[in-house]
Amino acid sequence: MANLQEERPDDGVELGVLTDLAGYHLRRASAAFAADFARVLEGTGMRQVLFGVLSVVAANPDINQGMVGRSLGIQRANMVALINELVELNLVEREVAKDDRRAFALRLSPIGQDILAECIQRIRAHEEEMLSDLAHDERGRLIRLLMRIEAKERS
């Protein structure tokens, strides 16, 4: 492994074994992204999990909430509360699914479409800033590598 010690900011504190642990750096990077994400979406009423649900529903009109939850790794009980919240905020419309009367089909409301579009614009700027030190091909490689790690969780 390359000498990672040289790549971290010099604040005089040695990290010991943490320097070479991917999980440590993933957690720190995730925390940095989450904090900036929250700052960027301030005033929209959106949180990461709600944005994730809106994104999946927008990409899959009439999807049922169980499929949304599975795709995002959200437990069923939590998914019900999230969908209720989005329906109460008039961001998602819910109706009984035509193909399964026990399930609900979800789609974005016009307000949900507007909020999602605004959030996407803000998030794209957020990601551009957070990843500004990476070249375009490095960004793509980073996402592909993270997806490979995510796939391990599902297998």
Automatic annotation (TrEMBL):
GO terms for molecular function: DNA-binding transcription factor activity. GO terms for biological process: response to stress. InterPro entries: HTH_MarR-typ, MarR/SlyA-like, WH-like_DNA-bd_sf, WH_DNA-bd_sf. Residues 19-151 form the HTH marR-type domain. SUPFAM superfamilies: Winged helix' DNA-binding domain. Pfam families: MarR_2. This is MarR family transcriptional regulator.
